Amino acid sequence: MTSLSHPLTWGLRRRLARWLSTPAQARRSRRTERGATTIEMVLLMIGLFTLLFLGLEAGLYYHARSVAIAAAQEGAREAGSQHGSQASGVAAAQQFLNQAGGPGVIVNTNVVGSGTGTTATVTVTGDSMSVIPGVHVSITQSATVPVERLTQ
């Protein structure tokens, strides 16, 4: 077997023939596209991570909103009970917030109670926890219940 009939030599010959048959301009354009895949992947990953973090942010907001409305309802039930007051309603809502995750769910919380002779309202405000630095989503949830009264 001579060196020209060796299988590796035939492979090299084919590649050389293909390279020589390709116009010089096409060979140059292939060289200028080097790294294009890397740049495309970087741009794609930026979009992918943006969608990922926006999805996480939406989930955290939804959870914090659910905890805030549950705390407001708990406080309003306490304030609207027969022997309840606005102060006891605010305390019940604050206790619920602390037990349901504390500052890990809602930060900068503020609980306010108000009412009339027939209704009791508790409002919970705060900011949702965020995974995106500098983004603070505000949450305000209120619950109103009728005040329990003895009637004859």
In whole angstroms, the N-to-C terminal distance is 117 Å
Number of strands: 3
Low-confidence segments, ≥5 residues, pLDDT <50?
none
- How much of the residues is beta strand, in percent? 15-25%
Q: Return Rg in Å.
A: 33 Å
Please summarize the sheet with the most strands.
Answer: 3 strands, antiparallel
| Count of the separate structural domains | 1
Could you walk me through the main structural features you see in this protein, from its secondary elements to its overall organization?
By secondary structure, the protein is of the alpha+beta class. It has one domain (31-146). The chain has helices spanning 7-21, 24-32, 36-80, 86-99; strands at 106-115, 119-128, 138-146. Strands 1-2-3 form a 3-stranded antiparallel β-sheet, covered by helices on one side. Helix 3 (36-80) runs antiparallel to helix 4. It is rod-shaped, with a radius of gyration of 33 Å. The mean pLDDT is 84.
Task: Give a short overview.
With 152 residues, this protein is of the alpha+beta class. It has helices at 7-21, 24-32, 36-80, 86-99, and strands at 106-115, 119-128, 138-146. A three-stranded antiparallel sheet has the order 1-2-3, with helices on one face.
Secondary structure elements and pairings:
Elements: H1 7-21, H2 24-32, H3 36-80, H4 86-99, E1 106-115, E2 119-128, E3 138-146
Antiparallel strand pairs: 1-2, 2-3
Helix pairs in contact: 3-4
